[in-house]
């Protein structure tokens, strides 16, 4: 089976790579696999400022990976597509198969 790679495919993977290249953004994506969340709750659970969270969510929106849903005067964020949750889980499992020590309890050897 031959797969045709287009510039669109390349750009899509580059956007995902950019999103995952920052630890905070990767943690946001992994946390949103559990369901929608408010920025203030995400900031608190990840131990970052609200300004950092706002900047990272803006980046993830720009990459097309998360969406905001208005909820009164606030907005909650969710993964832009439910398939992204499975894809992130698959990618994480693959990384752990390739290098099981990468994300040991001692910290990430990849960083």
Commentary on this structure:
This protein has 5 helices and 4 strands, in the order ααααββαββ. It is an alpha+beta fold. The chain has a domain at 15-90: Orthogonal Bundle (Arc Repressor Mutant, subunit A). The strands form 2 sheets. Strands 1-2 form a two-stranded antiparallel sheet. It has a two-stranded antiparallel ribbon with strand order 3-4. A hairpin with a 2-residue loop joins β1 (66-71) and β2. α3 crosses α4 (50-62). The model has no long low-confidence stretch (mean pLDDT 88). One of its GO terms (molecular function) is lead ion binding.
Question: Keyphrases for this structure?
Answer:
about 110 residues, alpha+beta, Arc Repressor Mutant, subunit A, 5 helices, about 55% helix, globular, ArsR family transcriptional regulator, WH-like_DNA-bd_sf, cadmium ion sensor activity
- The level of helicity is 55-70%
The CATH class of the domain at 15-90, by name, is Mainly Alpha
Largest sheet, strands/sense/barrel: 2 strands, antiparallel
Per CATH, what is the topology of the domain at 15-90?
Answer: Arc Repressor Mutant, subunit A
Question: What is the annotated CATH architecture of the domain at 15-90?
Answer: Orthogonal Bundle
Tally of DSSP helical segments: 5
Give the amount of beta strand, in percent: 5-15%
Protein name: ArsR family transcriptional regulator
GO biological process, one term: response to cadmium ion
Pfam families: HTH_5
GO molecular function: cadmium ion sensor activity; DNA binding; DNA-binding transcription factor activity; lead ion binding
